[in-house]
Design goal:
Blueprint: E1 4-5, E2 8-12, E3 18-26, E4 29-34, E5 46-56, E6 59-68, E7 73-82, E8 85-90
Length: about 110
């Protein structure tokens, strides 16, 4: 809605790991927060949100990827905003997807 903007991206935390970031502009004031991690991801995972769509006030979907630092694999993620709460889930992958160190991030909504 008018006067509200929600960009997404990543930042480097104090441990040196890249983490997903959600910024929010509302009422002329910017706030930021770390995006939630998908279930079953370790605390040393690196993540980035790459795209966001907000089709209705209070309802957004952001997409990107997380990396299992020890293996280097990328996992696609979907973060959703509903009723003021962000949640994160691993995105489904094709049944023939091969686990590798290539990017399998979701890049558009």
């Amino acid at each position: 809605s008018a006067g509200i903007c929600i960009p997404v991206g990543q930042y480097q935390n104090t441990a040196g790991t890249l983490s997903s970031l959600i910024d929010t502009l509302s009422g002329g004031v910017w706030t930021n927060s770390a995006a939630p991690q998908p279930p079953n991801m370790g605390s040393d995972e690196g993540g980035a949100l790459l795209s966001i769509s907000c089709p209705a006030t209070g309802s957004c979907t952001a997409v990107g990827g997380y990396q299992d630092i020890t293996t280097g694999y990328h996992y696609p993620i979907i973060d959703t905003l509903s009723a003021g709460i962000w949640t994160s889930t691993l995105a489904p992958e094709p049944t023939n997807a091969v686990v590798s160190d290539d990017n399998t991030d979701v890049v558009g909504v």
